[in-house]
From TrEMBL:
It comes from the Bacteria. It is found in: Cell outer membrane. It holds the Pfam family SusD_RagB. InterPro entries: SusD_RagB_dom, TPR-like_helical_dom_sf. Gene3D superfamilies: 1.25.40.390. Keywords: Cell outer membrane, Membrane, Signal. This is RagB/SusD family nutrient uptake outer membrane protein. Residues 215-535 form the RagB/SusD domain. It comes from Flavobacterium magnesitis. Belongs to the SusD family. The keyword Zinc does not apply. Its main location: membrane.
Amino acid sequence: MKKIIKYLGLPVLAIGLLWSCEDLDVPITTQLTPDVFPQNSTQFIQTTGPVYVTFRGDFSFAWWWSQSLTTDEAILPSRGGNWFDNRNYIAMHFHDWTVDNGIVGSLWNWSSSVIGKSNQAISILEEAMPAGTEKSTLISELKTMRAISYFMLMDNFGAVPLDTLYGDFSSKPKSSRVEVFNFVESELKKAIPNLNPASGVTTYGRPNRQTANALLAKMYLNAEVYTGTQRYNDCIAACDQVIGSGLYGVEVRDSYLQMFYPNNGPQMEEFIFAVPYDPAVGGGGLMFHARYDVPRSLRTRFGLPFTPSAPRSTLPEFYAHFENDANDIRNKQWLTGLQFMADGATPVTVTTTKKGYDQFYTGSDGAEPFTYQVNLTPDIVLRQSVALTDLGNDEIAWNMGYRNIKFYPDNTSTSRNQNNDVPFLRYSDILLMKAEAILRGGTATLGDTPLSLVNTIRSNRTTAAAWTSVTLEDLYKERSREFAWEAWHRNDMIRFGKFEGQWGFKTDTNVKHRVFPIPTNALVLNPALVQNPDYVND
């Protein structure tokens, strides 16, 4: 069986030992000190465990919410007051978040926590491990995880403090976005020679050499956003490192959807770095996509052991990218229109009352039973309250919006949690990043052209004819189709200059919202921090 213990060696024991070092009442013999733990190869690996456990913690929550709800990809409105949650979710849509927004705060705390855990584990291994290849590899993996977290902070908050010394509790001022960019670039470059060159079971869930190259490519593609200087040739070179490794390939059309199924894992040839989930294992993380995306009326269709909430959906503006090619396998990640059971023939029906179906029904027979076939509609209509972004609390409201089930509902789990691993970096992104970098002025290499690279993806996604030309706008739409629900859309929209556009109910066009404000709790804990300039008077 796949998953965390087999590939990452993260027993709960190791996690508990790390956490115990913060408890001053625990006897010294149980403290995490080099003369007690870690002392052998297995324990050295276990020492890295809390970094990966912490990274999984909010990857499918704060990371997903902040990267997708801020775009035209997803929306989470209220339905009869449900999911209003002090405007936390809908503020992402309107781009009117505040310094106290819960999602923004969680994103900062999560990324910072991964960095802190990385600093701790690096410090322990530096002291406890004998010199050698294993030590160099483990520490380079941890530094890569720290670099990923600093990339996330830089991408979302701009200038942030650089803190790499465990045990130093002094307040750290912000380093500029350019300085953080340079730090992440330097860390990744130094890590690459020591990272494992292999892929598959032996490295799954931990960064290997091509993880670092792929993240460098992502940084270089966005370098003009981060630093004001384009780095397209560097992006192409980093992509070529991944391509030249020969470790990865594009999943064929028949297995595209399987990449995201509950039984996915190291066998997926596109996964460069994926986040493993396993609800049966302590520290296995939380991944609740089905809870948020599957309509409650479809519980039986998917055989789920719980009733999903289904508060979030896509917007018509985003779904439009999927409407022009009926042969594209990526269309099948969506639930749209009239719904049927798994046999494709039996209608999914719900029995309620006429008033329960439509709360605004005014007939005298509103309490009479009413049975209807579930029909998911594309538009999001504020029927109950415009001010509260509320659709209503009836069947019509709960069926508004097309739903994404790319991370296919897991009916093997006894809880709302899922086994689906979630890719962070995959091979199709490498090809499309290289295509974009060339289109933006980079020098083509290896005989590749933007058209050949895009058609490599498309030939494995649709039976439609190959493209004969490609523009940046075409590439943007292709990225929307390829990486829907994978939390890269905010990054793409900013780079393509579309983040200030209008969609759904959003009218905000302020470029300051390309970064989030520093959360209040962070400012309190670190007096050396200052608020991002555009939010000082908010």
